[in-house]
Amino acid sequence: MRILVASHTYIVDLNCEKLRTLSQLEPGIEVIVVVPKRWQPGGVQNKMIETEYRDEGSFKIVPISNFSQNHQGLLAFGADLINLLKQFRPQVIQVEQGSRGLAYTQMIALNQLLGLKAKNVFFTWWNLPYELKLPVALLEKYNLSHSHGIICGNQDGAEILQQKGYHGPIKVMPQLGVDDKLFTPQSLPELATKLGILPTDFVVGFVGRFVQEKGLLTLLQALISLKDKAWKLLLLGRGELHTELLKIAAENNIKERVLVIESVAHNVVPQYINLMHTLVLPSETTYKFKTLTAIGWKEQFGHVLIEAMACKVPVIGSSSGEIPHVIGDAGLLFPEGDFQALANCLTQLIENPEFAQKIGAMGYQKAKAQYTNQAVAQQQLYFYKELVNSQ
User: What domains can you pick out in the chain, each with its CATH number?
Assistant: First the structure.
């Protein structure tokens, strides 16, 4: 099977592992990843990235000249894309720029003009209700009507697209899997000692941005209510709430229990996760409608959950967005913003180590079965086969 995937996401090699794995699942699979030749993530204030061609046999990364160098929806490719499509003649074309991306419209049109007869697929994370104005509404309508399949990163996104009139095949799965060679259970007593974590401490962990919508104030409030327990809070990341979190901790005489580690390299993150007795993702939905669209945010997936699960660390998540679907029965859930319910979840794990171990093992099994790069690549291949074999 010949598969072409296009997205700015894959200018980062770390993000390519799932597609690299996909190319190795069966003989005869070829994967070409189209990336913008020049991309400036985060806008003009950041460094321009110049991408390079890479040939790994059945897996190739091909930079293509592009229009718009930092806007996902406006990304489109140059004429060199035509030659690539003519030579490769993919059976599946997947564009990971959402339902109204120009690059996807371009691929659909070229697929027809060149007579490729490939299956058109796009990926989206978008999980908030919206209404579009012309001409963007027509662009999305065109893309949806020419899609043979859609991959959504969350259940909410799939339901929204069905409400928009799409009734074809939809697969709900993450864009990226977890590297289970990197995220794996390990004992790190020396790192714990270095951070001042005692063997009697129950380490509550968080990894991500220190912002309002991630629910950190709710997490801190829950822990303040459990001051009589022997816990420490390990925060890995950075953000605007840093100062406020430490201020609240100081006011409640728990500042010495809060450990803040600035953002570290991705390959170091598993070391800190393995120090945790639980990882908490207390995200809080913030969106509201303004004019024709929703403004705000709702948890789209929560990738750190599957990273912790792969390390056999029990997870606790809020009810925001995709979190309940990711965790399922392999962790604990609480209503978003409810600090007392979160405190009850923490108490269950603190007071019952055997239960905590059981939850960790269940999460580990789910991560292995559904969320590793191997598992996600296999799900994607099955979906492609269904599309290619359909009339």
Answer: 2-177+372-389 (3.40.50.2000), 189-371 (3.40.50.2000)
